[in-house]
Amino acid sequence: MHLRIITSIALTCGFLPGMLTAADPWVAPPAAAAVANPTPDTSATQDQGSAVYAKNCQICHGGSGNGDGTGAAYMYPKPAKLSDEAIQSQADGALFWKIGKGRNLMPGWKANFSADDRWAVVRYIRTFAAKGPGAGAAPVASATASGATAAGTKP
Ligand code: HEC
Q1: I need a labelling partner for 18 at 20 to 30 A (CA). Which of 47, 66, 142, 153 fits?
Q2: Which CATH architecture best describes the domain 31-131?
């Protein structure tokens, strides 16, 4: 009797650590991260990736990669904000590997579309870097470049 109780407590505790790893940092194996993106870095590749993204990723990651797609509201962990430094600082190979493999509510896409399409979607994810929270800095920089001082642009 006691043994059964102890066993069930041990089992419960055994499951908990597995559940708590849900929001752990997700690290690709170094060998996968080291693989170079074989697709050309052109607008044609970005367009190819954009089509894949609109169909398969936008529902969770949002139109601008901000992790705010319509499917995101009740998810834990949340779909990654692809415009974030934490994602943009990763190697193409690391993102490619994660997109293929998936984790938690993030589906693995290896069986759904070609490696070429997955590399292209990585190229497209790079375009979100400019649309992230730092994107507002651009007009200030161009005002300075056109001759106005930073102080002069204040109201
Ligand atoms: C059903 C919702 C859903 C869809 C569809 C989806 N994702 Fe995700 N994605 C997630 C969630 C949730 C996470 C966070 C997973 C985690 O950290 O365990 C995530 C994480 C990621 C990450 C971040 C990995 C990291 O370093 O933390 C990338 C990159 C990514 N997704 C790309 C994509 C791409 C590209 C597609 C389309 C091919 C896609 N996702 C489709 C839900 C989704």
Answers
A1: 66
A2: Orthogonal Bundle (1.10)
CB 87 within 8 A of CB 122: no
What is the pLDDT at residue 133?
52
103 vs 28: CA distance, rounded Å: 11
Could you tell me if the CB of 112 is within 6 A of ligand 1?
no
- Give Dmax (Cα) for the chain: 83
The pLDDT assigned to 130 comes to: 67
- Helix, coil or strand: residue 106: strand
Is the distance from the beta carbon of residue 26 to the nearest atom of ligand 1 less than 6 Å? yes
Q: Residue holding tokens 């080291």?
A: 34
Q: Which of 24, 37, 61, when mutated, tests ligand 1's pocket best, judged by the most ligand atoms within 8 Å of its CB?
A: 61
More confident residue, 143 or 90: 90
108, 102 in Cβ contact below 8 A? yes
Mutate to test the pocket of ligand 1, among 37, 60, 76, 109 (most ligand atoms within 8 A of CB): 60
Structure tokens at 74: 């009740």
pLDDT of residue 73: 87
* pLDDT of res. 4: 54
